[in-house]
Amino acid sequence: MKYKSLQLPVLALCLSLITSGVFAQNSFKPQKDVLATIKKNFADGDVQYKYMAKQFIDGQFPKTYHPDKDKFETSNSSWWCSGFYSGSLLKLYQETKDAALLTEANHNLKGLEKEQFNKGTHDLGFMMYCSFGTANRVEPKPEYNEILINSAKSLSTRFNPTVGCIRSWNSKPEDFLVIIDNMMNLELLFNATKLTGDSSFYKIAVTHANTTIKNHYRPDFSSYHVINYDAQTGAVKEKKTAQGFANESAWARGQSWGLYGFVVMYRETKDKKYLDQAKGIAHFLLSNPNLPADKIPYWDYNATNIPNALRDASAASIMASALLELCRYVDKKDGQEYFNVAQTIIKNLSTPQYKADLNTNGGFILKHSVGHFPAGTEIDVPLTYADYYFIEAMQRYKAFAK
Ligand code: GLY
């Protein structure tokens, strides 16, 4: 009798958890032609990245290629994008099993190792987790664990408990600049807690995300790019942009970073507040009248010259990858919408409009991203992270076929 009386409430609780997404693990049906396109993209990516490896001298890190000048541009290991090259090689290796890609990745990782002690940047998540985090899944090694833990320790030194955030860009000591991109560095911290059992990394990530919801987001779930806090009191001094069109605009890549970041927050904590945040951001993006029908965003959702504004393939790749995870956590109807949009992005990035011919484009897979429009740098060029998240999105899509 007692047992029976418990059945209804337990059933109701389970149903409500399922509909709220806590236990949801949706599955959607990938299209055969898209899976075939993805298979070809991985094979072509293999050719491209071996071509790219010949474009620069040993010890450097790919940054971009300027088609107008036929010029390949590199950086040193401290540039925020230094982890994407090895990360892309490793992801392509997972798909093609071409040992040449693994050899090149392992060689490049050697030059990146020293960044584990870099306390001068907040970008260690991008730099070290996309590279060594991926390497640790491909070929797990104790030395990778150590590098990842040291990287998380270095990143944690930039956390200010009064502000409740990790400092992004260095600035005058009284200022404390935090950019929305910083949400992407939190996955490294969650990983460090798993590797060490030390919850302090996890707590920093949660505090940073909560402060970001409070101060970076507008009521419509669009995000500011930069918040300047008072480093002593934590008060918000300014809300502005650096890479977007205007302080009040929605810079496209920043919106994608935020979406991806809050999907990770939900995955790692299972706190519904982060799921709601990710769904709110997805709604802002997918219902935006300035999102084109092909779902490849303009570089800023409020750029003045829409429909002639430049597109940003990187914002599209990041959004597709995030949506292909988020669709698993929500109800079937929203999930199907997210899946369909990601599928449309993958299809369109795979057309000659965005996907480079073999042995061109400096070896990058995708063309047409926008790095920093206001600064006049990396405009309408390939970018390492556009490729990285495109490959990841295709892996996530393919996973639905299993
Ligand atoms: N600041 C990183 C980016 O350009 O997305």
Please characterize this protein's 3D structure.
GO terms for molecular function: chondroitin hydrolase activity. The active site is at 123 (nucleophile), 181 (proton donor). Keywords: Hydrolase, Signal. Belongs to the glycosyl hydrolase 88 family. With 402 residues, this protein is mainly alpha-helical. The chain folds into three domains: 21-52 and 272-402, Glycosyltransferase (Alpha/alpha barrel), CATH 1.50.10.10; 76-157; 158-240, no CATH class. It has 13 helices and nine strands. It has helices at 2-20, 32-52, 84-96, 99-112, 124-138, 142-156, 186-196, 200-216, 252-269, 272-286, 313-326, 332-349, 384-399; strands at residues 61-66, 71-75, 159-160, 165-166, 175-179, 226-230, 236-240, 369-372, 377-381. The strands form four sheets. Strands 5-6-7 form a three-stranded antiparallel beta sheet, with no helix packed on it. Strands 1-2 form a two-stranded antiparallel sheet. A two-stranded antiparallel sheet has the order 3-4. It is globular. Residues 1-6 and 8-22 have low confidence and may be disordered. The site of glycine has 4 residues, from loops. Residues 181, 243, 253, 371 line the site of glycine.
Our estimate of the beta-strand percent is 5-15%
Secondary-structure class: mainly alpha
Proportion of helical residues: 40-55%
Helix count equals 13
CATH fold-type name of the largest domain? Glycosyltransferase
Kindly provide the radius of gyration, computed on alpha-carbon positions and rounded to a whole number of angstroms: 21 Å
